[in-house]
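Supplementary notes for students who missed Thursday's class. We covered one full example, reproduced here. Read the sequence, then the structure, then the short commentary at the end.
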Amino acid sequence: MKNDVPSDVAKSYQKQFKEVLIDEYQDTNMVQETILLLVTNSEESKGNLFMVGDVKQSIYRFRLAEPTLFMTKYQEYQQNGEGESIRIDLSQNFRSRKEVLDATNFIFHQLMDKHVAEIDYDEAAELTLGANFPKSNHMATELLLIDMKSNENESEDELSPQELQKNQVEARAIATKIREMIDNKFPIYDKKLQQNRSIQYRDIVILS
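Structure (token representation):
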């Protein structure tokens, strides 16, 4: 491209692609953005670019990701369809119980703002319940806080938190919690069986 005029190659790709779909748009860098502009229709009213993303999940600045690209479009595009582009907010969460979403929203409201996370965590950014789960008295949300100071209750054959790396201490705390849930036969709802059953290791996912 020279002087913002697409080359013949770029024009050929514009004719070739009926639609261009991109996921994780919040982690797009300027090189990728330039390529997208070259292979898509430049007229937004006839635009064929569909983007999916969540700036709260942007983690690749060290790879030169530029989340402001996402935020610029997020602020320019309107939900009511006014203008040449439209924004569709997918705020419903179908994976988690109300207890988990309420706790997450409570914490994020206090921690996230434009300075920290590129976006203010307001009602528009909140997670809302999208699935129905049977009521349970065992589903209180728990937040584990780890004290990195030496614990007097540590056994002699265990290393103290001060002797371990932060991620090792976290891993041990998580493993201890998982073992506790398995040993106590923590009840969970099984969609296939449509009833509660004891938790198994395969039911557990660790996000790091």
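Commentary. The mean pLDDT is 85. DSSP finds six helices and six strands in the chain. If anything here is unclear, bring it to office hours.
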